[in-house]
Design a protein that fits this description.
The protein is α/β, with parallel strands linked by helices. It contains 14 helices and 14 strands. The strands form 2 sheets. The chain has a 7-stranded parallel sheet with strand order 3-4-2-5-6-1-7, with helices on both faces.
Length: about 375
């Protein structure tokens, strides 16, 4: 299906092309017409499926048709709620890219914690057409009267399951009390559970539901390998692996911020430059680490599951699970950082003897057995 069939208009079609899309992904084909029609919508789709553009493109279309322009009282017309600072910044950047060719200038603002609230308050003076926010910072801005939700027309809950996993249930209840009853609400989530269903009941009205699988023609080949290596040899094996292979970008997942810093230090001692990214670092350091990986200034990023969801690193060649994730769902999200936008990728799990039973659980849940190798350093 060409983008013209989605009836978004030639200006947004140019935005799609600028983002490198040759044709719409299945989630975009199915969700965009329903969003344009004003439906409340619940979408379950896997990571890397194109969910972000599936809600941003029709929202931008509706904002333009509704008449762009600031509202009195620091109001906003559309709000996208996301679980992490990194995702807020990424969705804001993606929205700005899509909106570049629109006939009117939309004010788009991402707001999140970890940085001073004052510049964000100044940026919201006069309101905004579209705000992308994390829950805590959003409510802080509302309490400070820097942002009003009284005229909100469109609400998106992105990565809804992760919002609840991170403990934002109370904030979302507080948010609900701030919202006008007449609005369009869209929920996008990789998984559904009882907690997500409760939020659906609270926030949405008779929503349409979509469960979208990636089309076979668009399935991305990811080579999945399990390297069996004693726990005490994981560090030396990782260093040997990174020195031997020529992947231009590598994302190494570990269980904690302390482990991330320790792995980076030991890589550095071996002459391998890497950066760490975890929740104990300030927002500017986290943003800088991601940008250095994206633009090639650093080849290796060692991170916690903080960036396992939603973060798009174009052309990421390899994901390494230095520590196995706690759940198969986390494995899927971590691995989904590679093999995106029609490109292949490699996912390597470093598995010590006492982790083999957990590896078997992950393989059973994802429905495939990984290629086994014996890791030696």
């Amino acid at each position: 299906m060409p983008f013209s069939h989605l009836l978004l208009g030639p200006d947004l079609e140019l935005g799609f092309q600028a983002l490198g899309y040759a044709a719409p992904f299945p989630v975009q084909e199915q969700a965009i017409p329903l969003v344009l029609a004003g439906q409340d919508l619940v979408v379950q789709a896997q990571t890397g499926s194109g969910k972000t553009v599936a809600f941003l493109a029709p929202l931008l279309n509706r904002l333009v048709k509704g008449g762009a322009g600031r509202l009195p009282g620091n109001q906003t017309k559309a709000l996208v709620l996301v679980p992490t600072r990194e995702l807020a910044a990424q969705v804001g950047a993606r929205a700005a890219e899509l909106a570049k060719h629109l006939p009117v200038a939309l004010k788009i603002q991402a707001v999140f914690g970890g940085v001073s609230v004052n510049p964000q308050m100044l940026a919201l003076r006069g309101g905004a057409d579209l705000v992308i926010a994390t829950p805590g910072r959003l409510l802080e801005l509302v309490r400070k009267h820097a942002l009003s939700l009284a005229a909100l027309q469109h609400l998106v809950l992105d990565e809804a399951d992760k919002l609840l996993e991170l403990g934002f249930h109370d904030e979302m209840q507080d948010l609900l009390r701030q919202l006008p009853s007449q609005r369009q609400t869209l929920m996008f989530s990789a998984t559904m559970n009882t907690a997500v269903e409760e939020v659906i009941q609270l926030f949405l009205r008779a929503p349409q539901r979509l469960q979208v699988e990636t089309a076979p023609a668009q399935a991305v080949p990811i080579e999945e390998r399990a390297c069996l290596v004693p726990l005490e040899h994981k560090g030396p094996f990782l260093r040997e692996l990174l020195a031997r292979e020529t992947w231009p970008q590598v994302l190494v997942f570990v269980a904690s911020g302390r482990r991330a810093d320790n792995v980076v230090r030991k890589l550095g001692n071996s002459g391998i430059r890497a950066l760490s990214l975890h929740g104990d670092k300030g927002m500017s350091a986290r943003t800088d680490a991601l940008e250095q990986l994206r633009d090639g200034r650093v080849r290796i990023l060692v991170a916690t599951d903080l960036i396992a969801r939603g973060i798009d690193i174009s052309g990421l060649a390899c994901v390494i699970h230095y520590d196995l994730p706690r759940s198969p769902k986390d494995y899927i999200h971590r691995t989904g950082r590679t093999g995106r936008a029609g490109q292949g990728g490699v996912a390597i799990s470093l598995v010590s003897p006492d982790e083999e039973a957990h590896l078997a659980v992950i393989e059973k849940k994802v429905g495939r057995r990984f290629k086994r190798e014996v890791g030696t350093a």
